[in-house]
Amino acid sequence: MESGNLSRGAFSLAPLAMVRLDLRKTRDLVADWSIPLESDRSYDHACVCALTNSADILDLNSAAQSIIALDGKARPDRLSHIIPEKLQKTFAKGLVALLQGKSFSMEGTVKSADGADFPAHIAGWTDIQTHERDQIIIGITKLDHPLGSNNTDILADLAHAARISMLGEMTASISHEVNQPLGSIVTSAEAGLRWLSHDKPDLEEVRSLLERIVASGRRAGNIISALKGLARNAKPERETVDIAGLIDEAVLILRSDLNRRQIGLRVEIAPDLPPAWIDRTQVLQVIVNLVSNAAQAMSDGQAWNRTLAIRARENRQKIVLEVEDSGPGVDPQVRERLFESFYTTKPTGIGMGLAICRSIIEAHDSKIELQSSPYLGARFSFTLATGPDADTAASPDSTDAA
Predict the structure, then answer these.
(1) Among 144, 196, 234, 355, which is disulfide-ready with 341 (CB 3.0 to 4.6 Å)?
(2) Which of 107, 142, 177 is the last residue of a domain?
(3) Is there a domain that residue 345 lies in?
(4) CA angle, 330 as apex, 227 and 98 as ends, to 5°?
């Protein structure tokens, strides 16, 4: 299976509405009109209209089809018909930012193909699946709650939008990670057919190959289940969660990216760790985000010993979770603003990842602590409440009663 075909499949089947745009006309406009990103002066009405209509739609997945082109109708050429006038300036500036290798995000009420208004989060990022510098991806997330809802609803929707943006940026690594077990299944099945075609089939060899196929299928299924968990937009809901299993899910999602960056991983889970009382999806998002950031810091910072550790232990009836890297550490000037919304040190970052992580952990009655030393790496840590029945399960009285 070619990687290009697989990435196309991942694009088509993604639960997020995604649109691939061609910005060649946009780039020509920016050059001809000398449009800067920093100043608002050049963004008059004519400029905004021209920019908004300059980006041609190359492709859209099935989730976007229901929003942008209703069933039975031809695919539109541009996104401009769903972007209301009051959002067009922000969208136009976002397109210019994408040309400069940056990402952008915005929120507002947009219009579907059937004319119905709905609140949405829109994010744009570079299409890492192609070598075309002028192809970008726009992700559209329908928000479950009207703009201006209470803080809990807003946090849930922003967290979901941040997860979708993160998954979009990780598409290449995720596609490669899923491709490995699928390739193993095909190879093992072909080998099994050859063994069966012999005059005296080697059934033990076939049995071994079938076991390998089952293991590869389960691995692919586990990866997809973890991705579906991140992609879903359910209301925040706490439940008892096995932290070791949650960390395993994060590793499934990130393993290909860590291998690509040549980063060694250590997972240290204390024995007899009680379950945590958390929102599973949101805490998984925090772990994936912190590990992904640490991996990029080591990769970008030329770390000589690229080692990353994820640890979980119990302390005073709380679960302490740590993500530690051996990278360059966090610059003191950056540290003060690290968790601010829309602040990023990444050239293609949106600046929402760590801000959302902070909000999620604060909603879990804790906070993210950072310890960092120059050239010795950084360690992010936070605590999680144990499950409501953890004390009972550990009580001697409950054992006697059983």
Answers:
(1) 355
(2) 142
(3) yes
(4) 55
